[in-house]
Every structure is written in structure tokens, then in C-alpha cells.
Fold:
Amino acid sequence: MEKWFIRNRKANYALIAQQFGISEVTARIAVNRGISSNEELKAYLHPSLNDLHEPRSMKHMEKAAHIIKKKIEEGKKIRIIGDYDVDGVMSTCILYTGLQKCGADVDYEIPDRIKDGYGINVMIVEAAAREQIDTIVTCDNGIAAYDQIARAKELGLTVVVTDHHDIPFQEENGEKVYRIPPADAIVNPKQHDCSYPMEGICGAVVAFKLIQVLYELFGIEKEAIENLLEFAAIATVCDVMDLTDENRTIVQYGLRKAELTKNIGLRALLRENNLEDQHLSAYHFGFVVGPCINASGRLESAKLALKLFLTKEKKIAEEYAKNLKHLNEERKELTNEGIEKACELVESKYMDDSVLVVYLEHCHESIAGIIAGRIRERYNKPAIVLTDGEEHAKGSGRSIDEYPMFDKLNECKELLLKFGGHPLAAGLSLKKENINLLREKLNEKAGLTEEDFIPKVSFDMVLPFEQVTYSLLQEFELLEPFGKSNEKPSFALKNVQLIHARVIGKNKNMARLTVKTQNSNRIFTAMLFQEFETFEELIRTKYGEDSLVRLYEGTAENVYLDMIFYPNVNEFNGNTTIQFVIQHFR
Structure:
């Protein structure tokens, strides 16, 4: 059962609509997204790269840039240490491309997910020292690597950390004491004394900002930094950053850059997924391009994806792109098997738990986070999926808003060998004999109630179908790109009458509904792309099997649904119509 809420921020919608030449519907949606001033609304409706924040306001940004500039001028060897997810690959790509353009003697290392685990480790540090690397620059990792960076300093290396993850801390006398690694410079907007105005940027944007400053120091043309926007945008979407403020601007411009990309590798990957010459959206980054990049780090090496974006050879790019797509198909199969096994365990053993800790002994550890996310979605509970690593159990967690996972794992740190992450996601490793203890302790300290497990669904406003026009839908394009914290507009309508249903889709698990509302005799089309079995069961339960049969025959009477939906334009055989896509129903 879901709880539905209307977003109900107060404002003079008529005045806003008049001032900005938009409809009151669009004005309401903008206000619901937290826009509270004319300046913010202007930036929201018409984002500009000139509105991006000054990178030098980030703590140690100037220091880091000057350290690297000096090393480049001295001809010192620089090594980038990235990470194996999309943000890590894109961060590495941005830094490597940018440093090369500045004339650096630079190479890169991305840890192997299975062999090395997350982030910089002592083996990587010692290998750099042996290979006479002078300077290490981390990206999308490093803030939690105190001991590893201390070892690098012992060996005489210069270390610059660029990261965006939460700062590790210990509780002492009820206060947080932060443990900052002894690097020469640390660029991370989450440092408590950092004045950068936006904390929630991904690792690739931190890297992008550093290269922006370096380009300015080296007198490199502005167009060069804009060519890196597409990589920062892909990472922003795939690392599920809030699409607000400069993140939204970066993604909007990055999408347009990607449509016309000069990068041979990205072009090949878009072509392989039938996206070349298409109008790209954040969905394409998050659910098509991103998973292909991630698949390389999960099943082979993230260096494969990185090489795709760095190659200058069209044929090599095409081979890499085909390989990435193939790996992603393989990853999907493994994921589906893992989800099935995980759900069997949850429903047979752990349904009463507040925090779901599932041990899948033979699961490929690289997909543990995806499976945890699916379990979280299905049961609306925090979920951690663990599997066998080379020596110990390793895994990933995904959380709900009411449960700050990183902080909760910190309360159990004596049971863990290593952990890190965010309030909504975390990675961890521990001895196998501690798995049951971790489950017990997390549930003992969960602090969650049954109310927290009820999915909460919000919508923008009640909107009759007949008020939706082509011009309104065109206006909604001003609100894109949609994503976290800038969700696609959603509307609700009660007592929509169902007249006819037709089963569609390759797997016969979708429906095209003919509907009408109480206030109009017009007929509309509503599309149901998900929860098809739930839909049929609801009709049976509420109206009887005969009503479901008559609905498919087109002779149904007095069958009604409340629905949350979004409208879009459907183009088919040269005809254009407005349809309503059902997101939730009851």
C-alpha cells in the first residue's frame, strides 16, 4: 500500500506565470522543485554555463592546481588513481584528458573491483613509488584512504585528493571528529570548512572543476573545458546526484554536447545502442550509456570503458563499444538470477527485519549493489547484499530516506574490515563469521517504524486530462533534464473511468487503456507499462472477474481507477496524439 501526497508549496502562481510567460501549471511545478526567487526561476528555466560556481571557492582547489602546474612544468610523472564505477571512469577520463592537454607526463590506474577493491590501496601506492611516479592524483576516492596516503607520504610521493564522498569520522564524547588523510591537497566540497556553495556534486564534477582551473592557469581556450561537459554530465546522472543548481546545468549542456560529440568512443557507444543522432535525455545516460560503462568494471576491467573514451581509432572504438554492450547483457542475466535468489531468502527468513542483510554466497560481487537496490525497491527497506570476496565477505547497500546507511554502518564499525559511502548507499567488507552479528546489530539499532516502510508517492497537482495541451507539453521541456530532486512532472486524477483495455507488449504484460473522466465526454488513452499483474488483481478484487473480462471486451461499466500519471506525446505511423502514462494507481 502506498501513501499519496500532493506537493503543496504556496506561491502566487498567476503572478509567476505572468512574469515569466509560462502557464500556472509550469509555475506550480517549478515552485514544487524548491524554486523560491525570481533569480532562481530564471536560472531554472534558462540555465547558463555562466551560472556555474567558481571552482576556486572549493577548499584547496587553488593549492591543488598550483601543485599540479608546478609538477607539469618540472616534467614530473603524475599518476591518476580512479575508481571502477561510472563516476570513477568519467573522473579519470576528465583528469587524464585535461592533464595531457596541459602537457603533463601522466598515466592512470583504476583498481580491479575483485582484486583491489574500492579506491587507492597500499599496493597501488608502492607500485607507483617503484615506477618513479612523483605525484598521485586521486579521483572519486581518497578521502577515506588515511593509511594508504600516509604510506605514500612515507615513500616521498606528492598526493592530491579529489573526491566527493563523506568525510570519515569517529564519535568522541558525542561529537564527530573527522579523520582527514595527510595529502598535500584535498579537494572535496564536503569538508566542513569548504565554502563551495554546492556540496552534492559527483567526483567527475570535482575533477572537471580542477581541470577548469588548470586550463585557466595554462591559458587554454574555454571551448576545451566545455568539451569535457558530456563526461561530467554522464557521471552526475549515473551517480544519482540531485539535478538542481549547477548539476542540472551541467547535465543539460552535457546532453546537448553528447548529441554532437566529437569523442569517437562516446559516438561508438551511442551508435551501438541505437542512440546516434537521437535527442538524448538523462534517462539515456542513466539507463543505457551508464550501465554499459559500469559493466566493464563489474565483469572485466573499468580500463576497457576508459580506453573507449580515450581512443582516437574509430575501429577500435567500435570493438570496445560492442564489448561493453555484450558485457552489459551478461550483467543483466546475472543480476536477474541474483535478485530471484535474494527475494527467496528475504521472504523465507527476513521479512520481519527492518534492515535486510542478504548473503548470496556465489553471487558475482560486482552486482551486489544492483541487487541491493532492487530489494530496497521491492520491500522499501534498507538492503545490504553480501557475497564471497577473495578473502572475506564483501557487499553493497542501498537505503531509504529514513535510514542514513553510512552513519548506521559507522555504529557497527567494529564488525567491519572496511566501509564507506553515503546516507543512501554504501560499500563494505567483513569476516564471514560476522555477517549474522552485523544483521542483528543493524536491526537492533535500526530505529525504524512500520510507517517508514510504507512507500510515499508525491505528485504535483490534480490535473484533468482535458487541460493537457501540446503547448503545455512543449513548455515542460523547459523543466528538463529530469532526475533526482527534479522529477518528471506527475499529476493525479480520481475516479477515472476505464472503458476498454488492450494487452500489449512483447511479453503481454502492458496495457493500453481507453478512459474518460467525470467532467468530460472526451475519450483519452492511458498507458500502463508496469505492475500489470497488480492492475488485473486490483480490478478482480474491487469489481470482480466479470468486470475484468468485460473491460477487455470493451463493454465495462462503472470500473474506476485513481491514478498518478504524466502526459507525453505519442508518435505512431505519422500520427501524433497525447497519451497519459500511469505511474501509480489504486
About this structure: The longest strand covers residues 491-504. The chain has a mean pLDDT of 95. Residues 314-350 form the longest helix (37 residues). The radius of gyration is 25 Å.
